[in-house]
Amino acid sequence: MASEVAARNLALLPDVPFDETECEIDWAGPVDLPLGDETAVQAACGIMHVHGRAVGRPTPLAVDYASATAGVLAAQGVLAARIARARGLELRRVRTSVSQAALLAVSQYLAAATTDDPEEPAPAGKPDLCSSDGVRFEIETLDALDWLRFWSVLDADPAAVRRGWRPFQQRFATATCALPAALQETAASRTFIAIAETATATGVSVLPVRDRPGHPADVPAWHITSMPEGEVRPSTRPGALPLEGLVVVESTRRVQGPVAGHVLRLLGAEVVRIEPPGGDPMRGIPPMAGDCSARFSALNAGKRVVELDLKSAAGRRGVHELVADADVFLHNWAPGKAEQLGLDACDLARSRPGLVHAWASGWGAEFGEDPPLGTDFLVQAHSGLAAAIGPDGAAPRPSLMTLTDVVGGLVCAQGVLAALLNRLLTRRGARVDSSLFSAAGVIPRARRTSRGPLRTADGCLLLEAESWAQAAAALAPGAGPEGVEARCADEPTAAVQESLRTAGIHATAVCTDLRALAADPRFGRALGSAAHAFPLAPWEFS
């Protein structure tokens, strides 16, 4: 699956000559565990743990999410190697793994769990909003006053509205959201039309959750529009990494945009991050890693910061000055903001001919000029991904793990790499458009069936689907799968694994604690540690 995703993404390249860069994608990579499929990687590398927080137990995604993410990383590696060769660095081979992709996908949660003062786990809970006429829906607002107005118009209990804001606001960070039952009851007492009208009147975005898993639109992961030819400065020869010597200027927030800049930095680029005067407010959100938010640090460490007020003429001139010495400008502003500020692709190309201007949006062109808020969970709901990630027969619900934010940042970075390669060949800069909505289409929708992890006395184990009968014979002869579950529930994970190993059955221990994962020496070649643990660069070039 990872190879198929990589091939599809590389096929989006403009007219670029064929190249035979070798690309290898394996399951475990530098992780010293016998991982042989998507489900085992999700179990061992923390995806089941994070996705399952909302329901209080490790839960698999029913789609090949880690494999798809690895496919995008592989395509990035191929493009980076080609850029390196065009700049005089002979790189012919790139290697990555599904495990490294999974670790990158949980990097924010890993950082938050491995600080010196980690937060207490948030209680399990998942918004389950359904109208009186049976429409499941997602809501989104980033403003507490809009939240208050929305629920007040619907006559929700004021105390429940106040209690609900914090878990709702924090769900992007915690992957759980225990909303008061009174809010779900209020939703269930109104028709969807009434709820949607209230949302429009109060500035809240509401979308129904699609019950069909297929993506509703055929949109490429990213799209390149060539800019007029200009004077492109000669590219310097890189050092050890493909993008060394290139400069990326980034004005981004939350997850999607910072992920794109983070990936380009891991490939060697210098990333200059524009923040408002006083710094990005997200820097101060607990848990802290030293004097910076651990989650913020996970995606922004190593970037040089320049503070500019983009609302002022001086701040906008500062952007032009930064871009004059840069190769890429990257933002994930709201629709129309770049044009409003005079910082769109054509504006900045006057300061830097040959610039790659990348916009990582929420929706692309899906909703025209007045889209809903372009955030992860709304995109999961509308794109059909929410209907694909659960088991057969389950009601469609988005994961509270930021699935499209991560892949959205990765496909934006891949589009940037494609544009940089094209610039080396054509001397033209480019505008690169990608979105969370287009990224959602990268994730395959074929469901995998799984019984889910087995609970043990101190954790969980994952059995391969074809091993259940053999495991029943070894652990509970004559008792069937229910006997296996009862036997496992009474014994430690290590003891059950040993019993199964003796019978020739492999079982994967499921990560239930990201702090323990970071301390496990078997992950030592995939993770680094400073004020928190972090995934190392997911490519090996040779």
Automatic annotation (TrEMBL):
Keyword match Mitochondrion: no
Gene3D superfamilies: Crotonobetainyl-coa:carnitine coa-transferase, domain 1
SUPFAM superfamilies the record matches: CoA-transferase family III (CaiB/BaiF)
GO MF annotations in UniProt: transferase activity
Alphabetical keyword list: Transferase
Record-linked InterPro entries: CoA-transferase_III, CoA-Trfase_fam_III, CoA-Trfase_III_dom_1_sf
Domain of life per record: Bacteria
A matching Pfam family: CoA_transf_3
PANTHER family: ALPHA-METHYLACYL-COA RACEMASE (PTHR48228:SF5), SUCCINYL-COA--D-CITRAMALATE COA-TRANSFERASE (PTHR48228)
Listed name of the protein: Predicted acyl-CoA transferase/carnitine dehydratase
Organism: Saccharopolyspora erythraea (strain ATCC 11635 / DSM 40517 / JCM 4748 / NBRC 13426 / NCIMB 8594 / NRRL 2338)
Taxonomic classification: Bacteria, Bacillati, Actinomycetota, Actinomycetes, Pseudonocardiales
